[in-house]
Amino acid sequence: MTADLTVVHARTLTLDDALPEVEAVLVGGGRVLMAGSREAVRGAAPGARVLDHRDVLLTPGLSEAHIHLVTYGFSLSQVGLHGARSVSEVQARVAHRVLNTPAGTWIRGGGFLLSELGLGEYPSAALLDEVSPHHPVMLYSRDLHMAWVNSAALRAAGVHEGTPDPEGGRVVRPLGCLLENASALVARAIPAPTEAEFLTAARAGAQDLAERGYVSAHTMAFEAPDAPRALQRLAQQGELPLRVWACLPHERLGQAQALGLARTPGGLFQWGGVKFFADGALGSRTAWLHAPGFADGSGTGIPLDPPELIREVGRAAIELGLTPVTHAIGDRANTEVLDAYDALRPQAQARGIRLRIEHAQHLRAEDVPRFRGLTASVQPIHLQADGPMIRSLMPHLESLSYAFRSLRDAGAVLAFGSDAPVAPPEYRANFAAAVTRVDDAGERLAPGEALTELDVLRAHTRGPALAAGWDDEGIIRPGARAAFTLWDRLGGNAQALVF
Ligand SMILES: [Zn+2]
């Protein structure tokens, strides 16, 4: 019996209010059995194996609350444009890939931001044609709400000057950029990855997160259905290195029951949410805003899934035990989703489901208290690039942008993520951004909204667990999953320790 028992010695932050700090944790059968003083824990299991980590800090395991896990896995082998500061830098990275890619093969990439490239307007296909005349190229903006393509890609997809804008999207003229749903016009011409390629990408994404110190992740929809299925396969094969909570696009809810996708707690893979999009994103000027809208005169954004749909399909989701999860960036999008959620609250409460908003990025003061009891799934890391954009595009919303402290004080559960591959899954950047509020321009965005390091730890551990309805995660107390993170210091270097 004692052969299976382990005592971990470490300065331990439990996030359990009943016993916030302990010296030792007893683990057995993948669960925490006891937490307390060294003497008490050793006394309870004298024959147990001892892991001595007295020089490091032990906390509940890190969770990544918003990632497109398989897309992220694919991105690890695509052209990375994070940090590109000019069009010529993008051209150089694409040119390098062209040299190493058979002609005719699609070149994919992402991570650029128009503002970081120094562009005031949408770039043309011709700029990519200069370095890739024969390989079709498709590059996603960091927020994934826009794609930049070359002429070979447009030709392959049959998109030309006369192609009409699709619903919920725009083909920018002269040709080169596709906003929101319009990117599908080109994306659908790219050969779909095989099942084996999905598995490889799922493995790569999950492995990368585990190596960064994460023990669980919430993977959002906005990926092919094969993506979560690949994760499910890995779990069945015993190859999933972390616990995954997955979202289904709302369009597929009708098939959910038939596919056996209702909640299956206990395993490493679980269907948990149904995803809606209330609007676009800031960088692409597609976030849905109340008047006066964007200060550059580009309007009030693009509403996507209508609030009535969120209400109706959300009701069906809750019926199946799934959590409504809605992307809302602009202040108008947040108001509309909160209205829809007000109608869903009693039913969700009765089912023990916490309604959830992704990003909650820009808010009106009167909407903040309405987040009480909801999950605000937010990504501090985006504040760094967005700060300068917020000041120029929507100065009137600056004080309630990334309003973490106000949301916390209003009684929202904060769950931190990165939205990778939109940003790298870097908890360090989330710690820095949430604590200092310093953006890429070196200025502090709404400094009153700063959090403490302990708040950030909570939002990267217990917060996501509560959002997923996992009472046995993100906390160290008897019965909890024995999935921890070891730190040299809080927010420093992390390593996962999973039993
Ligand atoms: Zn996302």
Summarize the structure.
The protein has 499 residues and is of the alpha/beta class. It has 3 domains: 1-60 and 475-499, Urease, subunit C, domain 1; 80-187, Diaminopimelate Epimerase, Chain A, domain 1; 194-473, Alpha-Beta Barrel (TIM Barrel), CATH 3.20.20.140. 30% of the residues lie in helices and 23% in strands.
**In order across it, which strands form the biggest sheet?**
5-12-13-14-15-16-17-18
Distinct helical segment count = 16
**Radius of gyration, whole Å:** 23 Å
Output the structural class. alpha/beta
- Give the ligands present: zinc ion
- CATH hierarchy class name of the largest domain: Alpha Beta
What would you say the CATH architecture of the largest domain is? Alpha-Beta Barrel
Shape: globular
Quote the beta fraction. Answer: 15-25%
Domains (count): 3
Multimerization status: single chain
Low-confidence stretches: none
The major β-sheet equals: 8 strands, parallel
| Number of strand segments | 20
User: What number is the mean pLDDT?
Assistant: 94
If you had to describe this structure to a student in words, what would you say it looks like?
- With 499 residues, the protein is an alpha/beta fold.
- It folds into 3 domains: 85 residues, Urease, subunit C, domain 1; 108 residues, Roll (Diaminopimelate Epimerase, Chain A, domain 1); 280 residues, Metal-dependent hydrolases (TIM Barrel, Alpha-Beta Barrel), CATH 3.20.20.
- The protein is built from 16 helices and 20 strands.
- The strands form 3 sheets. It has an 8-stranded parallel beta sheet with strand order 5-12-13-14-15-16-17-18, with helices on both faces.
- The chain is globular, with a radius of gyration of 23 Å.
- The two termini are 16 Å apart.
- The mean pLDDT is 94.
- The structure holds zinc ion.
